[in-house]
Structures are given as C-alpha cells and as structure tokens.
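Bit of a strange request maybe. I'm writing a small parser for structure token strings and I need a real example to test against, not something I typed by hand. Could someone generate the tokens for this chain?
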Amino acid sequence: MSGHDFPAFSIDEYRARLARVRTRMQAGGLDALITTNPANMGYLTGYDGWSFYVHQCVIVSLALDEPIWVGRGMDANAARVTTWLSDNSIVGYPDDYVQSLERHPMDFVADLMKSRSIGAGNIGVEKDGYYFTAGSLEHLLAGLPYASFHDTTKLIAWVKCVKSEAEMALMRDAARISEKTMAVAIDMVRPGVRQCDAAAAILKAQVEGHADAGGDYPAIMPMLPSGIGTSTPHLTWTDAPFRTGEATILELAGVRRRYHCPMARTVHLGPPPARLADTAKVVVEGLNTAIAAAHPGVVCEEVEAAWRAVISRHGIVKDSRMGYSCGLAYPPDWGEGTLSLRPGDRTELEPGMTIHVMPGVWLDDWGIEISECVHITPDGARRLCNFPQPLVVK
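Reply from user aminoacidic:
Good idea to test on real output. This should exercise your parser:
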C-alpha cells in the first residue's frame, strides 16, 4: 500500500475486527456500544483525523451491518475519505452543537440511535476513557431512558491487543523509523546544544520516516529529561543546553499510520559515574532476561518476576510496572491500557501482542531508561528494533 491509501487496511480486515468486537459484546450481553477513543474508532473504521478535540464516536450495534461514525459535520468528509463505511453510516452533526452551552453532541447521538431503533437495551460506553466526559454520560442517560449503560472502556482495547500480520507490517515500519530517530536523537545530545533544538530534530526524523514509509505524529511527544530531570520519566524539553557531566534520557517512538514502536536509551556526556554505568549494565541484563521469559502462555507477572530477580541481586528496587501493551494510538498515550508487566497481572501472553518492555529506574536525583518494543511470536518475544542497548557515553 502507498502512504496515501485509505483506509489503511482491507475491508476484510476491518470486518474481522468488527466480528471479534461483536463476539465480546454478545458475551457481555451488550446490544450496542459507543466508542469515543480515537484509536478504537480508527481500529474499527479506519477513521483518521485530528478532530478528537470535539465530541465524536463510532457506534457498533448487533442489529446493524456496519458501525456508524458520528462527528462534527465538517469532519464527515474525512470519514468518507479515510473509512470503509457507506454514506448511510457516516453522520455529521450541525456546528451549533460544538462547544455549546445549550446542546450537546451526545443529544444528537441519542436521537440518532433512537431513529435507527438501537437506543434501548444494554449499551456500552467508555466510562474511564480520555475522550468520554461526565457530560457525555449525563446527556446519554437523559436522551436514552430505556437503555442500561455499562462500562466498556477496555472491550475494544483487548481485541486490539493481538495484532494481525497486516498490523505487524506497520509496526515493523515504525521500528525502522524509531531506529533512525533514536540515532538522530543521540547525535543531537552534545554539550551546548539546546534541548529544544534536539527535540526539533527528533520530531523532524519521526515525521520524515524513511524512504519506503513516511512517519506520523506520535501520541506522546519526545521525552528527554536531562541532568536531575532524569530522576523522573515524563519531562519533555526546555531551551537549556546539554551539559558535560550529565545524563539525558531519550524516550520516543517511530510511528507509521498511527502504529507506535517505542524505544528508550540513555546518553551520558563525559565519563559516567560508577553508579550510572553499573546500573546500566544491570538494567540491560534485566531487560533481556525479561524478554527471554516472554513466551506465549507465560503470564505478565512472570515476565516482571524475571526482571526483578536480576535487579534484586544488585539491590535495585522498582515499584512501577516494567512494560505494557502498545500499538495503534492517538494522544495522549501510546499504550493500549490493557496488560501490564507487574505483580498481580495474570494476563497470558499471546502471539501477535506487542509490548513496550520498559525497565526504567528513577531515583532521588538521577535515573536511567533502556527499553525495547517486542513482538510476541509463537517462539517467544522478538525485538522489533535493532539498536545498541548499552549506556551511550559521548
């Protein structure tokens, strides 16, 4: 497929996804569901537009052959361009619903569902989703009095968790972009270079992609905490320069058609302190031990335990999870919100899952990240990126 083909996959692929979602709906006793998560909307229909700042959704009903896309009227043509849906399944609401104090887009959704006789029964909504507000639920409750609403925040996410071969082709493209971008990022970490200039070069590399596959915007901006900032993972950049004697963490993702392949590495300018150099070796050993333990049928907490066994021998403690499912995503997160590599998660790994194995260690005034995105295959976990793992010393 070329970079401009829409939708991103065949209609058969989308219908297979829809069938798996419907199977889960039937198992949960649902008649319909409303998804407002842009990644879920794209997963089921192909829809791809920067329109998630207004209310929009995709409705799946067991009584209808196709999902229904509902969004702002001016975005309806974007749905016609990017999705596999017929015109009857693309419905735009008038612009006086946008950010109005008098009416709400979910009033329009409720009226539409009643008009198509799918507004009663058990309906799923993403109660804990970033894009589903308290106001959305209030207006649906008022507009669909004969419906019973149930939380389906994770329903589609678990279907997305296992990737098809067509999806894996995009994940591999994203990995090549990630490799190129990380090389650019490491090169930019030099004494006197401003962090913002490094971020600009990183973003340029992400969007350029490579000769055979253009890149896409990431769900998370490049993170590059430096100096004492490495003690925490989620800082982006300032206009301060990189300094000799300090470390910088680089966490970024290559992105292809919204599919993310994240990677993290750590750079130190000048000879690193022994504690950082020694911890880097432990992190790499633990990372690869965890990857070696990740086989189909193994549960998530067993992978984390393999990592913890390594770091415990060296007196390192990490309370946060050390990995999570990733893939198709929109801001603000490239994670899928399903499995986590941590104690207590008994999710069994399956072929087709893609996981960001992220064993970051953050202490009082310093930290280190060295991570890999892996594909679970029938024979075990396979790294998607081919990039050196050791602490980079410049």
